[in-house]
Amino acid sequence: MALDDILAAFKDGAIEADEASRRIRASFYQNVGQPSGGHSTLDSDRLARTGASEVIYGAGKSAAEIADLVEALVGTGQNALVTRTTPEAYEQVLERTAIARYHEAASAITATVQEPAGADTLIAVITAGTSDAPVAEEAAVTAAFYGNPVLRIRDVGVSGLHRLLARLDEIRQARVVIVVAGMEGALPSVVGGLVEAPVISVPTSVGYGAAFGGVTALLGMLSSCAAGLAVVNIDNGFGAGYLAHKINRL
């Protein structure tokens, strides 16, 4: 319930002062996992402050904790996105939140209470190799969750540049381009030199020893000579998808 609605209900005598106080506190944050003291503090006000609800990072959380958080967030009338999660967590979420959906390739759960306003312009998500797909799917699912149309272009890395050039007309239709690459991380520089749109580079931990778990790709992207590139953290598909959404709505 919005703050104005709570105050109006109190003024009209529909709720008592104690209940009004409780609802006001809950409109900003709520302890989740009661009555055992709570395991998380949900930021209920983030949607009002930033335009997007709190996103639940699933890694390190139990299935029950994730289910609690999704149920609480949906209970406030907000859409829920869980990243880095599991089918086991999804099963528990689905028991309490029938609108939940599991995105296996992205290891993500979404629960949409209200469809977001659709964007008119496209976000392209490009992978250098098939092994980069899980991170790319996290980016794509995130962008789509916020109402953006997404074009997926897979396995067009620099070792076979003709594959990328064959899709260039499609890519140039996008307002924002996300490029996901591991190994030496060269693909974002190539794409950045071919398109007008801003490019968000995502280094992945894919690669042999000297790739250093994605550090080589990260440093290569940070050192790119192509202008107009932004770089997010290693394997951070969510961060790329969210940033692309913000840019696409400007």
Average pLDDT works out at: 92
Shape verdict: elongated
Strand content: 15-25%
Number of helices: 11
Overview of the molecule:
With 250 residues, the protein is an alpha/beta fold. It is built from 11 helices and 11 strands. Helices cover 39% and strands 18% of the residues. Helix 4 links the parallel strand 3 (56-57) and strand 4. The longest helix has 13 residues, at 63-75. The protein is elongated. The two termini are 28 Å apart. The mean pLDDT is 92.
What keywords describe this structure?
4-stranded mixed sheet; about 20% strand; alpha/beta; about 250 residues; 11 helices; 5-stranded parallel sheet; about 40% helix; 11 strands
Task: Give me the secondary-structure topology.
Layout: H1 3-11, H2 17-28, E1 30-32, E2 40-42, H3 46-50, E3 56-57, H4 63-75, E4 80-83, H5 87-96, E5 100-103, E6 108-111, E7 122-127, H6 133-145, E8 150-153, H7 161-165, H8 168-171, E9 174-181, H9 187-192, E10 199-203, H10 215-222, E11 229-231, H11 237-248
Parallel strand pairs: 3-4, 7-8, 7-9, 9-10, 10-11
Antiparallel strand pairs: 1-2, 4-6, 5-6
Question: In a few lines, what is going on in this structure?
Answer:
By secondary structure, the protein is an alpha/beta fold. The chain has helices at 3-11, 17-28, 46-50, 63-75, 87-96, 133-145, 161-165, 168-171, 187-192, 215-222, 237-248, and strands spanning 30-32, 40-42, 56-57, 80-83, 100-103, 108-111, 122-127, 150-153, 174-181, 199-203, 229-231. The chain is built from 11 helices and 11 strands.
